[in-house]
Amino acid sequence: MEPSWQPNQQPQQGSGRVRPSAWSDEGEYVQKPLGVQEPPRGYAPQTGYQLVQQGQGTQSQPYAGGQAWQGYPPQPSAAPTPSNPWATGSVDPFDEPAEAPELRDQRSDHLYNKEDRFWDHVEGSQKTGRHGSRPHRGKAESHTMRWVILILVVLVGVGLAVYSAVFQVRDITVQGGITLSEKEIVDISGITLGMNTFAIDDDLVEKNIESNRYLSFVCVDKQLPDKVVIQVKERVEAAAVKYCGILYTMDNRGMVLEEYLDTERHTGLVLVDGMDIHDCRVGQAIGLNDESQMQVVTEVLVELKVMSALGQVKELDLSNMDNLFIVSDDDFTVRIGAPENLHAKLRSMLLTLNHLRQEGYDGGTVDVSTPVNPTYIPES
Question: How far apart are CA 338 and CA 185, in angstroms?
């Protein structure tokens, strides 16, 4: 049987403040002295005790005939008294042992009052994790991370699909070809329709194109998303040399293009004499002991081509690099002199030869080593 608390009970002098209690049968709060402990609901007290003020804290003392709490189960003790009506056989199990009274200072005064914020903390802690986090937060974060990874995988897949579908070569154009067809140049380059535009290796394309001795690589123009322009220069025969009894033809940069056993098969080409050759092979640049000779040949051939006079010269003599000679297609011998100021000298040569032809002269020697004052010596 639960004890009946008296609502008009007055606190003892010096026993502390009055606190509300939730033990009223009528559902109302009653006040009792702070020094009197309340039993838990449903607990049948058996032994009484009383709280006595000592110094800064309180200690429990058993009633006459009773004993201090030693453990469980409790030992029989004194009967209830007016100051402790629920002591009917044992000490309150919620009280601290007599040998550790300092624990009482850590107990909340509102331990049994569920209207206090103390219980809010206890109830809230049951809904959260050990460190104040939600119990299923880790699973939620893992689930979110899986969705993020899935979305990233889908985006990457879509990007790769677009990358592969959009940037495909669908149009190939060739610029600079002369004798070789566009298809031949495309096949040599290694670029094919359908390949990825960004997968085109310029260095590899250059190597492929330069493997053909008639082609000189310029660049690959990638016009995104699907068009490619291959720019080349086609090498053409411009000069001929005789080496070891074989006639070799080359372009104006010295690339050897063909070889002939017929040493007279050089019609329309400038025959270069006096070159100091140490190696001459088809598909390779001509090997010279004096590289300045090839520079002179290139400059002369380029100037004649610009002046549209390449067909008027049939021989260039480099036997003496300080005294160059040119033979025209109608057998005029032209002294160029040192390989300096070649543009002015060649222009003076063309003007002088044109004048001599108009005057009816045939053959002889023209000296344009001083281009502003050319001279002519007829044949004797």
Answer: 41
Question: CA 159 to CA 235: how far, in whole Å?
Answer: 43
pLDDT in tens, 81-124: 555 555 545 555 555 556 666 666 666 565 555 555 555 555 54
List pLDDT tens digits, range 254-299: 999 999 998 887 778 999 999 999 999 999 999 999 999 999 999 9
Encode pLDDT of 147-195 as tens digits.
Answer: 888 888 888 877 776 666 677 889 999 999 888 899 999 999 999 998 8
Q: Measuring CA to CA, which residue among 2, 48, 10, 47 is closest to residue 26?
A: 2
Q: Of 299, 177, 310, 315, give the one whose Cα is nearest residue 238.
A: 310
Token reading at 5: 């608390």
Is residue 313 helix, strand or coil? strand
How far is it, in rounded angstroms, from Cα 120 to Cα 128?
Answer: 13
Contact 356, 376 (CB under 8 A): yes
Where helices occur in the chain by DSSP H, the ranges are: 117-127, 137-166, 182-189, 202-210, 291-306, 342-359
Q: Find where tokens 């222009």 sit.
A: 347
Q: What is the pTM of this model?
A: 0.56
